[in-house]
């Protein structure tokens, strides 16, 4: 079974916190678009999300969702360096 992956760019995408950025995405055969959202001015990672875009060619569990439904979303709110795993910056 061959998986077809397509990709592109979406100019205005909002992360989980509502911040607007640019989405770099790939679409898979199950109708899921995976997006990485970055700030277009600073290139800082804002977050990521998965969106059901439809067109599923298989028995996808997402097939009953409306197109455009966000099925997973995360936001990056802080970045830092720590001395030990599990520490908070």
Key traits:
single chain, 89 residues, mainly beta, five-stranded antiparallel beta sheet, 5 strands, globular
What does this entry look like structurally?
With 89 residues, the chain is an all-beta fold. It contains no helices and five strands. It has a five-stranded antiparallel sheet, with no helix packed on it. The mean pLDDT is 87.
Please summarize what this structure is.
This protein has 89 residues and is an all-beta fold.
Overall mean confidence score, pLDDT: 87
Number of domains as seen in the coordinates: 1
- Which structural class do you get from the secondary structure elements? mainly beta
Q: What's the Cα radius of gyration?
A: 15 Å
Q: Strand fraction band?
A: 35-45%
Question: Low-confidence stretches at least 5 residues in length (pLDDT < 50)?
Answer: none
> What's the β-strand tally?
5
Order of helices and strands: EEEEE
User: How are the strands of the biggest sheet laid out side by side?
Assistant: 1-2-3-4-5
Secondary-structure map with pairings?
Blueprint: E1 6-14, E2 20-27, E3 32-38, E4 45-52, E5 70-75
Antiparallel strand pairs: 1-2, 2-3, 3-4, 4-5
């Amino acid at each position: 079974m061959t998986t077809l992956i397509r990709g592109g760019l979406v100019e205005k995408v909002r992360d989980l916190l509502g911040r607007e950025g640019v989405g770099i995405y790939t679409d898979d055969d199950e109708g899921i678009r995976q997006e990485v959202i970055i700030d277009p001015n600073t290139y800082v990672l804002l977050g990521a999300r998965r969106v059901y875009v439809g067109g599923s060619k298989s028995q996808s569990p997402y097939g009953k969702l409306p197109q455009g439904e966000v099925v997973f979303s995360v936001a990056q709110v802080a970045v830092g360096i720590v001395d030990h795993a599990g520490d908070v910056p």
